[in-house]
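Why do we bother with holo predictions? Because pocket geometry can differ from the apo form. Keep that in mind while you read this record for fructose -6-phosphate.
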Amino acid sequence: GKDGYRHYMEKELHEHPVVIGQTLQRLIDPATRRVMMPDLPFDLASLPRAVVTACGSAFYAGLVGRYWLEAVAGLPVDIDVASELRYRDPPLTAGGLGLLISQSGETADTLAALRGMRARGQHILSVLNVEQSTMARESDVVLGTVAGPEISVASTKAFTAQLSVLACLTIAIGRARGTLSEAREQELVTELLDLPSRANEVFDQGQAIREMAAVVAQARDVLYLGRGSSFPVAMEGALKLKEVSYIHAEAYAAGEMKHGPISLIDNTVPIVATLPSGRLFEKTLSNLQEARARGGRLLVFTDTKGAPRLRDLAEIVVALPTVSEFTAPVLQTIPVQMLAYEVALLKGTDVDQPRNLAKSVTVE
Ligand code: F6R
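The structure, written out:
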């Protein structure tokens, strides 16, 4: 049942902290604080590259994974949505990694992409929530997201569980490839293990998120902005808003705004920005100043460290706990999903069963 929550989506949003914790517990040895992988039928050290594919939210998790795999593990990554990848003819070196991500393990396009990669000699590693699924049976290795059943059609908790797995996989590959010292591994593991508590604190921001929702619910179009690993978080926010509130939303890499979408900006198109402190903070901040100068209404998710810089600029600032750049996208996902939920409530849509959508897309 819904355990007293109004919708499964609300219940599942509140499961983020537990799900992150459970997923990490499977992959991190608490005694040594080191990532442990199951026995693999291939060697992580000798992978020439990875091809990552998935659909929808799972694809956005994969995009965050790309930032990690490239920057932390030094692994070359190609990534595409499964419905495109399956019809592309990318030249693949045998012995590469085919990395699939799916909550259900039954998505037709992702399954077809898996089969295509297997036929081209890729090692198949799937990050799956349903461990008894078609994709599980056809994979060399399954890394489980320990999210429990996800009932709401719009995916929520599966996403942070997927990120938890991808973070651990990145650490394991980085160690195998020698790009990650033991000391650095311990730092990253510590940052990951800190996430469930920090995630719990996100719910303290409910009131500010509801204020944002009141602005967004009046809009016809909403622009989501982010840079680096926050860009896929913006994409996830925009998708979730479209799905459950039926409001048009588009995510842009903040630096691309001036190459087109800036012409959309006026006071009727709210801008939802995801902007944690760190390397890309100043760059994104100047993009937001450009938007503000054109009358844009800024609704910003940042952290306690970034918040003071935004108070005069943005209409509403949600300050999450400050965490590392590595783990920030995991934490920042929770409030963008919460925002979509709150807007859907205001719009009175069928939150758990949005029109035209199915939980598992088993047709092409
Ligand atoms: C978004 C959503 C969909 C799924 C996509 C992939 O809220 O639910 O975009 O993420 O259909 O589904 P799985 O992960 O089952 O392959």
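Residues 157-177 form the longest helix (21 residues).
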